[in-house]
Amino acid sequence: MIKLAIYGKGGIGKSTCTANLAAALASLGKRVIQIGCDPKADSTINLLGGIPVTPVMNYLRERDEEPEKIEEISKVGFGNILCIETGGPTPGLGCAGRGIISTFSLLEELELFEKYKPDAVLYDVLGDVVCGGFAAPIREGYASQVLIVTSGEKMALYAANNINSAVKNFEDRSYARVRGIIMNRRSVENEEEKVQTFADMSGLEIIADIPRSNDIIKYEDMGKTVIEGDPDLPVSRCFMELAEKLLAEEEMNGNE
Asked: Which of 64, 158, 168, 190 is most open to solvent, judged by the fewest CB atoms within 10 Å of its CB?
């Protein structure tokens, strides 16, 4: 099973990349779960036609009781992707990271993975925070690999470096490792050179190069990924190629 956590600077396009990768994997016939780990709870909205799923933390606050079935805190979206959002505390109260930990504990109780038997699970994690609950996907064994989304912007690369350093600390304890970088282009001067320099210095591979595309915005305005909107677009092919690469690696590792 592919178990990926996607990290990066806030606003860098993690949710777009995660949702399109999930859609690409589903288009290849795989059973996929996407879990949004951000209080904004907007990770999966473009897999759901623009209609959000009720976040787990909202469900718990509103009902003051735990759900008895996965269906109560999830929605099935494009390609039969199971969509879940952790959500967060009431603004100004509580810790968002604790919401992630509470959600993961609940999903274990509901035996999500045993019952759904996914081929791939993607965790879209808030910003560049790799501590507390936000480290749960990689620290608690839920994810085995990390993808870092960055552009050539200075602060995006700064965040990417912090994330890589944090994950390397976890590697010493046999937790997740950084698989590579998704370069999500922002039309920065010498962008490819800047990202490649960072990748070389960090010993990482640029595993995907996502061009800046108005088609992404066009289809997100419709509540869709570009994979759903038009799988033949050049930007869609980039996500499909990433999905194919990850699946090929998973199959190779499974046969070793």
From this structure: 64
Extended beta strands in 126-232, E state: 145-150, 177-184, 206-210
Nearest to 132 by CA among 99, 156, 91, 169: 99
CA–CA dist 207, 199 (Å, integer) = 10
Residue 3 designated active-site: no
| pTM of the predicted protein model | 0.94
pLDDT digits (tens, 9 = 90+) for 177-201: 999 999 999 999 999 999 999 999 9
Task: Name the catalytic one among 40, 42, 209, 245.
Answer: 40
> Which candidate in 30, 38, 128, 224 is catalytic?
128
| 9 part of the active site | yes
Please indicate whether residue 224 is annotated as part of the active site. no
Q: CA–CA separation, 22 vs 2, rounded Å?
A: 11
Catalytic residue among 9, 75, 194, 224: 9
Q: Does 42 qualify as catalytic in the annotation?
A: no
Q: Which two tokens stand for residue 65?
A: 């009781």
